[in-house]
Amino acid sequence: YLRDCIIAANHADSQGGGIQCEFGLCTLRNCVVEGNSAHSGGGAAAFAGEVVFLNTTFRDNAATQGGAFDSNGAESVLFVDCSILDNTASQNGGASLRSQAARPLQA
User: Fold this and answer.
1) Cβ-proximal residues to 75 (8 Å cutoff; 6+ apart), any chain
2) Model-level pTM?
3) What is the mean pLDDT of residues 15-34?
4) pLDDT score, position 96
5) How far apart (Å, rounded) are the C-alpha atoms in residues 104 and 88?
6) Distance, CA of 55 to CA of 71 (rounded, Å)
7) What residues have CB less than 8 Å from 65, skipping those under 6 apart?
8) What span, in angstroms and rounded, lies between the C-alpha atoms of 107 and 89?
9) How far is 45 from 22, CA to CA, in rounded Å?
10) In whole angstroms, what is the distance from residue 85 CA to residue 34 CA?
11) Residue pLDDT, tens place only, 63-83
């Protein structure tokens, strides 16, 4: 659980430039995720478990796939009162990329 945080200017060669969530419950509340980069999920990536974003801003993140966020296999993903601004992907999903998920994205 992360609250009132800034996750900025990070890089991952593979997944989750800003943060990667795996297994269990991952929650970000009142956070800013900006200026991060990765091959997939420039701002954040989730590959198992449940992910909840509350009043979180994704801005200026970049990836090949899923500029702001990539969820490939997470059980559920929930966005509540979030902003997704100016994220880019060179191939798929500037805002978000989702495949092989158990349940659809909820906003």
Assistant:
1) 48, 49, 50, 101, 102, 103
2) 0.90
3) 95
4) 82
5) 22
6) 19
7) 39, 40, 41, 89, 91, 92, 93, 97
8) 21
9) 9
10) 9
11) 999 999 998 878 888 999 999
